[in-house]
Amino acid sequence: MSIDIEDLAARIAAGERRALARGITLVESTRADHRAAAEALLDRLADPSRMALRVGLSGTPGVGKSSVIEALGLRLTGAGHRVAVLAVDPSSSRSGGSILGDKTRMERLSREARAFIRPSPAAAQLGGVARRTREAMMLCEAAGFDVVIVETVGVGQSETLVSRMTDVFLLLLAPAGGDELQGVKRGIMEIADLVLVNKADGDLAAQALRTRADYAGALRLMRARDTDPEGIPAARTISALTGDGLSEAWAEVERLAAWRRESGVTARRRAAQAGQWFEDELRAGIEALLSSDRALAARLDELRARVEAGHAAPGAAAREALDPLMRALDGAAESP
Amino acid sequence: MSIDIEDLAARIAAGERRALARGITLVESTRADHRAAAEALLDRLADPSRMALRVGLSGTPGVGKSSVIEALGLRLTGAGHRVAVLAVDPSSSRSGGSILGDKTRMERLSREARAFIRPSPAAAQLGGVARRTREAMMLCEAAGFDVVIVETVGVGQSETLVSRMTDVFLLLLAPAGGDELQGVKRGIMEIADLVLVNKADGDLAAQALRTRADYAGALRLMRARDTDPEGIPAARTISALTGDGLSEAWAEVERLAAWRRESGVTARRRAAQAGQWFEDELRAGIEALLSSDRALAARLDELRARVEAGHAAPGAAAREALDPLMRALDGAAESP
């Protein structure tokens, strides 16, 4: 495709959903020319004044993530918010996308004019998924979406990744016996700001309350209280089916987000996140550079072969490989 | 310390345990001059003909890792093997080292002339732990140890890391009820070549047998059978206390290792591992390069600040940062 970046940027900034979808397709592409265009687009749209409330939501399959996002999303769009939903599914390259793969799972929300739903791209590496998701998030913000929900399935690394690109992190659980508390990895409990026990309706209502109580205690123990306002992290019961507890849960999210904004936590956190993304991009850029320079690439192949055969140690070989780069830099520094 | 690399290499190659310990201290150091010396040492000692049987062993705390390694190690040294034991404990920076922190936990083995035991270094990053462990392993091999056991505690990422630097991976379990099978992460079951159910003695003997049966079935389902000889992966009961099953378990390890060696699996796997280590070292070297070049470092700081403030997109800023490197390389290519 031939891309008029200026035009695309203007249409995204005007909030056009089709332009936004096209922009996301661009950042998802691995073609070199697309990547350059994507970077130009993102740089043009960089605007610190347009930042959404970024909410991460994690939960194992079957816990009702789609139903909760749909119920919550409809309330938010009904109240005038513009809501974007993105997904991080590191398993999608194998499973073909188990979350958000079918938009009809959020049929009503996807028909809303103020909502935008984008499934997870199939990507081989978690690093690739991270880049695409944060870039898609930036595009959604540039398009004027003021709430971005990033959904992920519970497999450990992806939660950390999502919590590192969002402001508030929610863990969704199903009602369960107390002995199953251990099934949630400690690391995930540590990053959760709010635990929501879904399906608190009908026969499961009482069990949901007990689960909530089990987690409320565990959460408090795991978090340093002084970084958050009174009562956070918290555990709540909700029902995507009846809508019970959703407004209260969202009020809690907003209260926490407001406290973090006012106390400077959000600004510090976003600066640190952006700095980290820069480092990630730098690393990716260097790797691309190493493989694109022909003489360097040939030298690398030769050294790699020696290391693979056990005739050279990896560290010394790497040092030797980087020698021309070092000398090139020295030369560049000495020239006027 | 002033280091005579040639002398140190010679003494390590002669199998001197004190020289080996000193070499490992050198590869664990983060000082730049020590790093250069460590790389020179490793490169000098690189010798594909001196390769040990590398065995990874993982298990949660309390499962009896130290007792099993001691009992197994004493049998192996008694049979003439030279056995080195290393530990990977990613949590040691926080906990102060929960595994192998106290050599007296393997008191008898540590007194053996043909054994060498080295606790996990306190390190902040898993990447750092990986590098030091594989370098320590190379030094042990250069020193003539023909069996290297790398112990790790069960926390997910460290098992993957250890399985990537060893030839055979053992998972150690305690006797447990069948409903606890789910507690072992699927990913760890997938990399285990052999599951050893310890404490198959006294009152727990019957339960150990049931646990073995539970895992035997699960293991077979999870592994592609065609890459291994008949009957592997397998589950066995052992007792570090009585010694029951240890000889049979080790025979299984050797049978698998021999099959992998003869079928070319080991050679392919080690070449791939070495290639990956080279890539890791390359990446670390580039990062060191970027921070050591002053003009480049200043430019990086400036661009990072713009990204952190939200005024530039991470990808475009990284591209800009790498521009001088790219031009330097082009210049170097053009000069005679």
UniProtKB/TrEMBL annotation, chains A, B:
Q: Which GO terms describe its cellular component?
A: cytoplasm
Give the Gene Ontology MF terms in alphabetical order: GTP binding; GTPase activity
Identify the InterPro entries for this entry.
Answer: GTPase_ArgK, P-loop_NTPase
Q: Which domain of life is it from?
A: Bacteria
One Pfam match, given by its short name, reads MeaB
Q: Which family does it belong to?
A: Belongs to the SIMIBI class G3E GTPase family. ArgK/MeaB subfamily.
Q: Which NCBIfam families match?
A: lao, PRK09435.1
Recorded protein name is Methylmalonyl Co-A mutase-associated GTPase MeaB
